[in-house]
Amino acid sequence: MSFSENLKKLPGISHLAALNLLDADGNVVATIENKAGSQGSLAVYNHLAQTYGSINVEAAKKGIEIFAEHSEDERANPGKHPNIARLLKIEAGAPVLRVKHVFAV
Known about the structure:
The chain is an alpha+beta fold. Helices cover 46% and strands 18% of the residues.
């Protein structure tokens, strides 16, 4: 399955302005905005947060699977896809991230 096919199965994100990813201390370590270029990542992270409650190892593995060919591209070109790189780090043991939804007004 390709990323675009996987994306069609995920819940809509029109109600979101962004997602903030928080470390254990509640600090925002990343923001994924609802704008061109990051809407796919926003949809994936939103789905993972709804399914797993946080971006933990299980969520990271599922996210890497959903990103499909883009995950392979990130492995071949580290840093090209920061939102996938983050999932690979969590899969490899980096700390779990909490997700805070920023709703569109």
